[in-house]
Predict the 3D structure of the following.
Amino acid sequence: LATNKTLKTLNLGYNAIGDESGQMIAAALETNATLTTLIFKNNRITPVGAQAIGTALATNATLSILNLFGNSIEDEGAQAIAAALVENAALTMLDLARNGIGPEGGRAMGAALAENATLTTL
């Protein structure tokens, strides 16, 4: 994935990928320049994996759709992704439903949305 030059959509939903594999895919996103859609729903991603995804989002310039529905990223993971949204200028759709995100994560996301000019669907 890090060097792939053709893949545009990657659907890994419902695969119980977990944090370790999630971190590996996130690391590849840091250099991937073609992927526009990543579906990661119901994969047992926790705040650890969400941190890695946030790091990737801060530098990735092509991913426009990220679906993290039904994981367990909670407040800490939402905060990491929110921090990345301040830097990210490509993402237009982000699904974080059913992730155990509480008030702290919601506040972080709200603050990030005040600065992000590309996200249109959350």
